[in-house]
Structure prediction request, 313 residues.
Amino acid sequence: MNKVFKALSDPSRRRVLQLLRERPMSAGELSDHFTVSKPTMSAHFAVLQEAGLIEAEKSGRTIVYRLVMSVLEEALLGFAQTFGWGPDSERTRRVAERKAIKRPVKGEA
Amino acid sequence: MVSNSMMFRAASVLTAVGIVLVVANWYTKPEAGLAWAAPLAMFAVMIAALRLSRRALRGATEAATPRRSRDWITTAVVFAALMMGIPLALTLARSYGVVDDVDFGRRSTGVLSGAFLVMLGNVMPKMLPPLSSMRCDGARQQAFQRLAGWTWVLCGLGSAIGWLALPVDSAEIATTVLIVAAMVVTIVQVLRLRRPRHPAPGLS
Prediction:
């Protein structure tokens, strides 16, 4: 269960799960929705796979990901989105702002 | 989450306890011999299923599918042994005059059945066949299994709460209505899944 909570704690991974709710998608299709690098996306996919929330299947040269979330896990995802852990939520924005203030800018120190 | 070996031990212990309860009941009420032979035979089938699932996996590769099947068999045996063991224990207790409540056995069995439906519905969206073997659109299959999962989880929850909170007669009716409704929803979705999807206008 710890792995599931860890996987759901990241807004990008939650976004991946939301996208996969619509239909199974290839790694490339999913990556197109994000601005982060492909290795970062691969790391996110690995965390989600390890938690048993998504499954990968090779189809020719592409890897197709699909959702394999139980009802409880889906309820947890909905809970995370509704109660302020969503990628666009006020709380996430405040945490990001706080992190940006704390982090010293290179060259200024 | 309960580990697999613990679940297997629980299944073995519960079936053994069930057999002891059947024998004790038989000893107390020998006139109902056939009524006790049936649960005895069912416990024997459960033990055989446990042993066979264990043996089938031995020597096989540690692939996810056989392991998942074995876990399913073990969990089903645990629930079945509980559902049979509780009424057997209560019947025995009643014949010794320890318990007077007639409805307790029905209620506990109803709550357990509801819990089993919740568990079954919960894992339904996880049991997707491989994409390559699907005969219909993967997205539709996924949507169907998600809906079916939610339907059976809510049905099981409603049923368990009904058996806990309502009078026994009302709980029986409520549970029947819930299960029939869940079955209708599932059947309608299956029929929709089998129907070919019409292409969008303008697409060949």
